[in-house]
Amino acid sequence: MAQFGFENDIHSILKLDMPITNAPMARWQRKASSSNTSGLSALSPGKSANVSLSSKTPTKTPGKGKKTPSKMGGDRFIPIRNNKQMDVANFLLTKENEPDDGKTTVSSESKKAWSVTLNGYNIEDAKILHLGGKPLNAPEGYQNNLKVLYSQVTTPASLKKTRYISSNPERILDAPELLNDFYLNLLDWSSRNFVAVALHNHVYLWNAASGDILLLMKLERDEDYVCSLSWTKDGSYLAVGTSDSKVQLWDVENQKRLRSMASHTARVGSLSWNDHILSSGSRSGHIHHHDVRVANHHISTLAGHSQEVCGLKWSPDGRYLASGGNDNLVCLWPRVQEGGSNGEGQLIRSWSEHQGAVKALAWCPWQSNVLASGGGTSDRHIRLWNVNSGSCFSSLDTQSQISSLVFAPNYKELVSAHGYAHNSIVIWKYPSLTKVAELDGHEGRVLNLVLSPDCSTMATVAADETIRIWKAFEMDPAKKKAKERMAKPATSVINQSIR
Known about the structure:
Elements: H1 2-14, H2 27-41, H3 83-96, H4 108-119, E1 171-174, E2 187-189, E3 194-199, E4 202-207, E5 213-218, E6 226-231, E7 237-242, E8 246-251, E9 256-262, E10 268-274, E11 277-282, E12 286-291, E13 298-303, E14 309-314, E15 320-325, E16 330-334, E17 343-344, E18 349-351, E19 358-363, E20 370-375, E21 381-386, E22 391-397, E23 402-408, E24 413-418, E25 425-429, E26 434-439, E27 446-451, E28 457-462, E29 466-471, H5 477-486
Parallel strand pairs: 13-17
Antiparallel strand pairs: 1-29, 2-3, 3-4, 4-5, 6-7, 7-8, 8-9, 10-11, 11-12, 12-13, 14-15, 15-16, 16-18, 19-20, 20-21, 21-22, 23-24, 24-25, 25-26, 27-28, 28-29
Protein name: Cell division cycle 20 homolog
Keywords: Repeat, WD repeat
Domain CDC20/Fizzy WD40: 173-470
């Protein structure tokens, strides 16, 4: 009986003459409902319209020929943030750019709990932007450095270029029988690229371009020796001061002595040219001016030193003559007046700040009123003078005897040669006098230092009987070509006028 009861229940459920309460909505009911909704939503406030409940199939395919109408509202999500959250978000944006020190070990769950307790919300939810991880590098072959606009890493092109100064000389020449005398000036470099060096009673010429060596002259007596050398501006003639109180003048091209001028009473240890005027300093403390164009060459005598004149330099513009002596004085003399004869020169200035013999003198090529002087073993100071005002505007203790000073115009530097106790060559930045480089190559004290015609190379001679060539001031090729174009060939003032 139970079986029959179950079948009757099944038949009653499957009968279609009773409404199905859970059945889906009929198709015609769905169309009517959608028509009513769209009609009501299209009404504008304050206006009436006839709503058609027709369910005819449209003649055009929806979506073609008509743009989808924009719906009013409900299509964007605008988060609501209070002012406090915006401040926190701004703080987080700036905080993300700071590097992590790696010291904090608080877990993310603890941070979230603290944030909810203190702020009332999770601080992570207040972030506006969150960038995580490092950016990926472009694949090899797709990188184009020319399109990089900003970079925090310095590239080699943006680094400041520093020139290389070799600590080793480019060439070493033997100088046997060189006199180890601090007060003598035994080396000079001509504008025609010839280096003259005095070895006892001989004078040799070294062609810096070809490397050839030539014996120019030899003194007649073996007990005599050469004390000083100086080239004319055009490099055609060489003045030679000797221990027998004479000054000889040599024509280098023809290897011929033009004249021998006698006016001093002691050895001539320093020489300097100013056009046709040759100035010579003697052990007697006197300075003589010689006009080499005339027979009576001695035209003036300067008596400002009480001991040997070991330093003598005319300024590049020819206005002043600077002299240094074993009496620790630096003297400044005026230009030689035309037509003067055996007159006494008037001293312009005299400085006595040095505590040792002043042999090293150099005029600044780019500042005609600046004179540099260096003291001997008891002084060791480099001093920079303004000859117009007479003031010493810079001074430096080099801790070593100073034998020579030269200005290097290619990099606006000052070079000093030293004797006891360092026996080195030092390059200083002008005018700060900060050390750029120190060259230690000589095994004895450096006696003289001269610069090449292009100012890129210097030659030093020392008590170790060697001449060393240093390439320390080579210019950039573009700047070098521009300088060569501006340079004009020098003409000899005294050519064909020496008797």
